[in-house]
C-alpha cells in the first residue's frame, strides 16, 4: 500500500511534467476503491470498464501494457488480462491497437544493451528494409507532442503484429530521471533497474 498517497501522486505528476513534458492535465492518476495497492487481487471487470470509458473519452488509438507474465505481479497481470479481454471484444475493428511488453528471464532483464542482438533477431528483415527503403506511408509518427495527425497506412499494418522500440542515450537519461522522481519509492533495486535493465533501453511488443 502507498504510505503517502499525496506524495506519491505529486511524484508521478512531476515524472510526467518535468521528465517528459506531458501536460499535467494529460497525466491522470485514478483513485478507485476497488483497485487499491493493498488489495491482493484486482477486479478485471472494473479495469475493463475504466478502459472503455477513457478510450471513448480521449479517443485513444494505442495501448501498451504488460504481457500475461506481467513481471510476476498480480496487479499488472489483472491490467494485462483486462486489456486482452477488451481487445478480444473489439477484434473486428482492432481499434485501439493493443500491444504487450514481453517479459524476459531475470538474466536477460539485466543484460542491458547486450540483450538487444537477441531481441532484434525476429525484426532483422524489417530493420534491413528500413535501411534501404523509405518508411511506408502512414508510419511517419510525430513524437514532438504537438499532436500531428498521421493517416493510417493505406494497405493495413504491413509490419505484422510485433514491434521493437529502442531509445537513444538522451531518451534513456530521461527515463532514468523520470524513475528518480519517485523518491519515496526509490530503492537499491530500482536504482539497479534504472542502470542495467534492458527495459530502460528497448522493449519488444506483441499485439494482443
TrEMBL record:
E.C. designation(s): 3.5.1.89
GO BP of this protein: GPI anchor biosynthetic process
GO cellular component, one term: endoplasmic reticulum
Top-level EC class: hydrolase
GO MF annotation list: N-acetylglucosaminylphosphatidylinositol deacetylase activity
Domain of life: Eukaryota
Family, similarity comment: Belongs to the PIGL family.
Listed PANTHER family: N-ACETYLGLUCOSAMINYL-PHOSPHATIDYLINOSITOL DE-N-ACETYLASE, N-ACETYLGLUCOSAMINYL-PHOSPHATIDYLINOSITOL DE-N-ACETYLASE-RELATED
Name this polypeptide is given: N-acetylglucosaminylphosphatidylinositol deacetylase
Organism name: Talaromyces pinophilus
